């Protein structure tokens, strides 16, 4: 996605940058559409200009949202940043690290007592969001961190999304339980009010055919080209005919430089706090709901 306020965010599917369509900017929100593919893993790669992280702005707080529900929250100081998983607590209390992938959205055609009725979720199905706040350098460790509860998967009635361009949702993959998860997180001092992030990147996704039908993906971009191929004939002489070859005009794929993994050694300034290693990689996570006195 184009740089916005000194920050760019790309969505990568299986390691390749997804092509973005109808990119728009409205205030702090940058929105685009991408083609989602069932069972494909995806991740986000952020690049922050050095001018953005300077002066009183020494770190960024980030929240990852999918289908209207928050998955995880992080704080970091790097200019290249990779978000490729989340840590959640399931219904049994187990904390797991999970990868993210696209899944076909399943609907029901009859009423269910537990069907999804929350409009803030129904309106955000098929939507991914990266929310970013500017924050001060200092971060205080807290021992009362609460992992995000695993998002609910209530049945979606087909009438609830009738007429909407929705075919896929986000699901978890490659889940691994974290043994003895730490309760440590970090409190940060945001410069921007929590209700109004500095920048929000919104990716709306659906199948190629649906986005074509909606006029979001121009059909001519994906049109097949024709090639003249000479064919030998058993009869005297030669004749030619047009044979359509499948050679889609694919967009150029550009890989971002590999960013630092979340939780890298220089993510939180020295001194490091003991007891924070609760998985194979350390991560700086913050309590989004808590603010220091005097924050906006």
Task: Describe the protein's architecture and organization.
Residues 228-296 are annotated as: Disordered. InterPro entries: DUF7918. Residues 286-296 have a biased composition (Basic and acidic residues). Residues 6-219 form the DUF7918 domain. This is DUF7918 domain-containing protein. With 296 residues, the protein is mainly β. It has one domain (1-296). It has helices at 119-122, 208-213, and strands spanning 7-13, 16-17, 21-26, 29-35, 42-48, 59-66, 69-76, 80-83, 85-89, 95-104, 107-108, 127-142, 148-149, 156-157, 168-177, 185-190, 199-206, 226-232, 238-244. The strands form five sheets. Strands 3, 4, 6, 7, 12, 16 and 17 form a seven-stranded mixed sheet that branches. A four-stranded antiparallel sheet has the order 2-1-5-8, with no helix packed on it. Strands 13-9-10-15 form a four-stranded mixed sheet, with no helix packed on it. The longest helix has 6 residues, at 208-213. The two termini are 28 Å apart. The model is unreliable at 224-282 and 288-296 (pLDDT under 50).
